[in-house]
Write a structure and sequence with these properties.
Mean pLDDT: 91
Low-confidence stretches: none
Strand content: 15-25%
Largest sheet: 4 strands, antiparallel
Number of domains: 2
Number of strands: 4
Order of helices and strands: EEEHHEHHH
CATH architecture of the largest domain: 2-Layer Sandwich
Oligomer: single chain
Structural class: alpha+beta
Number of helices: 5
Length: about 140
């Protein structure tokens, strides 16, 4: 399912800043306009993905015409001619499969006796490593 939110883009001295007014002024930036758009998609996908993971619902998207560009220009300290609104869209589920949920192969070494003992107990090495890393990193 496609999610769409208006984002304010501001041309600044060193690139572009991007702010999503409907999402607690979630922001990102890019050195070029293309990079700013790509970062906006990534930022939006990440925010909506974690809202879903936390069981929270996303706020309603505003209409682009309801965004106050003058206020955004003043906040960004750029001329109003340097700002514009664009709708940023992303399929969060598809984006997450590629960027957030993709598994990464790791090669590691353990003592042979530990490997034998774990195999005898039908231990899932990947699951144990994930659980240990989450515990060590206090991620739940």
């Amino acid at each position: 399912m496609l999610s769409a939110y208006p984002a304010c883009f501001a041309k600044e001295e060193n690139g572009y800043s991007v702010v999503f007014p409907d999402l607690n002024h979630l922001s990102t930036c890019g050195n070029t306009l293309d990079e700013a758009f790509a970062m906006a998609v990534d930022c939006l996908a990440g925010y909506l993905y974690w809202l879903q993971k936390d069981g929270e619902s996303a706020p309603e998207a505003s209409l682009p015409d309801n965004i106050n560009l003058l206020e955004f220009a003043e906040m960004s300290e750029v001329p109003v001619d340097n700002v514009f609104v664009n709708i940023v869209t992303v399929d969060v589920a598809e984006y997450a499969k590629t960027h957030f949920e993709k598994s990464v192969k790791k090669t590691l070494t353990i003592p042979a006796w530990l490997n034998t003992a774990a195999l005898e107990q039908n231990i899932n090495f990947s699951q144990v490593l994930q659980e240990a890393l989450k515990a060590r990193l206090h991620l739940g």
